[in-house]
Amino acid sequence: MILEGTFTFSGPRAVVWDLLQDPAVLAKALPGTERLELVGDDRYEGVMKVSVGPVTAAKFDVTVALKDKVAPERFTMQIDGKGGVGFTRGTASIALTEVDAQSTSMAYSSNVQVGGKIAAVGQRLIESVAKMMMRQALDALEQELRARLAGGAASA
Amino acid sequence: MPAKTRYLNARVVRNEDERLLTGRARFVDDVDLPGMAHVAFVRSDYAHARITAIDASAARSRPGVFAVYTADDLGEYSQPAPLLVPPPPIEDLIFHPRTHLPLAREKVRYVGEPIAMIVAASRYIAEDAIRDVVVDADPLDPVVDLEAGLAPGAPLVHEDLESNAAAHVVQRKGDYAAARARADIVVTRRLLYDRGAAAAMENRAVVAQWDTQAEELTIWDTTQAPIPIRNGLAAKLGLLQSQVRVVAPFVGGGFGPKIMMFYPEELLVPWAAMRLRRPVKWTEDRQENFYATTQERGQVHDAEMALTRDGRILGVKDVFLFYTGAYDPYGLTIPINTQCTLLGPYDIEHYDSTFTAVFTNKPIVTPVRGAGRQHGVFVSERLLDIAARELGIDRVEIRKRNLLGPDRFPHNHGIMFQDSAPLIYDSGNYLPTLERAAEMIGYEQLVREQAARRAEGRHVGVGVACYVEGTGIGPYEGARVTVEPGGTVRVATGVGTQGQGHYTVFAQIVADVLGVDVRNVLVVTGDTREFQWGTGTFASRGAVVAGSACHAAALAVRAKIAALSAQLLNTQPEDIAVENGRAFVRDAPDRGFALGELALKANPLRGAVRPGTEPGLESTAYFGPDRGSTASGVHAMIVEVDPETAMVKIERYVVVHDCGAMINPMLVEGQIHGGVAHGIGNAFYEQLVYDEQGQLMNASFMDYLLPTATDVPPIETDHRETPSPFNPVGLKGVGEAGCIPTGAVFAQAVEDALRDLNVEILEIPMNPNSLFALIAGAGKP
Amino acid sequence: MIISVTVNGIGYQREVEPRLLLSDFLRHELGLTGTHVGCEHGVCGACTILFDAEPARSCIMLAVQANGHTLQTVEGLAPHDAALAPIQTAFRDTHALQCGFCTPGFLMTLTAFLRDNPSPTQPEIRDALSANLCRCTGYQHIVEAVTRACKDALP
After folding, report:
1. Which of B7, B132, B360, B715 lies at 20 to 30 Å from B398 by C-alpha?
2. A-side interface with B, Cβ within 8 Å?
């Protein structure tokens, strides 16, 4: 499954970059994330609960490894999720471009494989669920960004 | 004098129906035993991966879980499953047998391969525990495509082999190169034919119970082959065959995958029952069925047909690839069927057929109704249609010019069939069948009217396709017929039944011979305690082989009846008539006995039994044909296609078939209707869709579409009869006939409907999406 | 949770887990194994029963949903004074079943359909059957059975 797109954040690139490296922020923004912690150099581990069609609240143990970091421009993520209903593996690359002093354009491109039971019965829905999760995450990140720029974190 | 009972060719209502209709028939999942535990399997999510660790500790400590087994826990029991069908003795055949382990060890080779078995107090708890088991797997690149699988550098499904080629077989007769050299045209095409899941309505299930006091193991199994299962499991579990009883009660549809034997679940459930000393049950669910039960998939053919300008086939050359899946326990039955069935009813003197079977990281492929015959028929029928078009000869006419005449039987094709005997057609008369089918569908009229309809904007097409099917193969079956003192006749045989009406058909045969009412014949089958010797229900052989055994046993009992009556009535056996449940002197009907009475007399409490005779009115007989009998038929259909939406509507469907003598025409029709429905599903609706990682994407009936009552048209049937000389009743099989030429006739009819758009259909299934793409791309240079 | 259900005219009271499927309750708790399970996702129709006289797929219902309701399964179709109901007899006479696994679902669907549509046309029959899957018969004899049952029912 290929998921790509762009999103414009209303904040300077350096702030956006920091936001994307903060596990606490990501944990709040990504729908269904119960826990996400930095466990090593550019390595995160956590737990997510995802619902795809008839499969509700499927638990996944996820690890994310960051690579090819060029602050504050780009990085790639190696994603590995494993759970009782299946697995997901893939990579995603993020590129941040300064539009102006107050806004940053993010381009994302990811190729994620989904397998196991969740893929066998939820196939038609996986892509739309992934897109929806992406949208929700980006909106949440934008909220957090604005809160941060206004001073203080956004409420949970 | 009451009329004689005659049950051959009789539309007898089935003996078994009352139980089935009132919900009183036992299917395996109905078995509920005190203390029974339930099984769920942890299955691979990856098509190809190395297993580095399995942690079942959390699962084992879940309340309600009795045990969790992995390959390490099986010890010596972890052995590759037996090779079920060794390849026939074809010269220079290459075959690499690789069979599955009961639980995967070190490597998994298809999504769904079992890794751990959980036994718990309920199915619900067992399934909960699946998520507790942590499997560490390092994914490997999977092989999912036939040609990519053979390319150098492809990942190896079996690393001890040099490539993913599981087999390579060449069968030749005559000299194709010479034939091609003198041909007026040669038609060359690449053809693809995909199959799918058998999708019986009942999923598989196994229940096992070990009686520790009697030291007997009872297994209920949705198998088409209870006797071989008993024999194999007894050997594997270190038991005598007599200590193991396998019961295949009513089985909700077989269609092939239930004769795949020694599935992991069949091996493990009895083993667990013995270890845990409690009954154990496993019932498959529908999603599991899509990976855990075998299926048939596709073949890719590069084929050519050499013909004269009169449309006479000089020869055929075919090179094809066949998906065997991750393992090949069933040998080469399917592709060899393809090789043989390609020849069809035609007189083809020169033939050069080569196939390579390829291991891929997908579920195991074993026969599904048709068993590779569809692929062969598709190739020859399509090439013939294309040749007809290029030569300007009518499609039915070109077939007529190539049919084997009735004087050519038995006809030895010079190549080998799946049963390791030469491919010999026993009997057949193809021209009248073809003419009748064309007549019934109104072929000539439709061809005449086609242009006019097209002018009205309607795309109507007709297709006519022929096939020949080898049925009724050996090795053998047996039956025991007993007249009970109450007058009921009991028939015991080994073949299981999955809807074919054996309880009625075998009763008809025996009732006919013994002159009793068919309702007075009780058939017992699918229980190894009742009958010990035989193989199973497959390859359209039940009625032919087991039926012939019933016939032979009944004849032997009839002889005993005549002999005993003659002795008691002081006359000769030739003077005894056996009719209407009695044995009597033909010229003095009052002098005789009811059969039940005679059975009592045959079992004396005093006196003696003469040497060389047996007590009772009972006989056991076996039937083992040297070779199969050849059924044949022609399908014809009319379709209307909307070129804008690519929707196809079947207007009419005709089947004229020859299955030799028929026992029960109503049941024969049912088999044909069901087969055609399956063929329509295959041609248009069903496809197992895998992604590049070997993940099945449509493992449910929401996305794997089976035809419904609004998708299957009324099917008109007619019957021709050329009896088989290989069994006394003249029977041939009919179980698979309905689905063999369906893809071919479908392609021909749709192509005919779209003739003005120059569409060529070389692929099955042909669903609206692919047809739409074909139409859109057609006519372009 | 304790539920009270009436099935085929008999009242039952049982303690069940909330997640117990109605099909499992009928088959394994009450021993009424005539209702069959083909897919557990509500598509094949083999599990069809009558729930307050309307067809329902028991594989996608929970036993607790049946609390206080009246159910009919295939075991309750034949009247007390006969072995078979007319639709069952019609199925037998036209060979509308082969393996018989999907049959209870068809019978229950048809019991409700024919009650509400005593003289359907052929297309209406096929339409009514289109939500029950059969892999054996190709549906033709089933359609004949329905036609015959309607004809036999005519005064």
Report:
1. B715
2. 59, 83-87, 89, 113-117, 119-121, 123-124
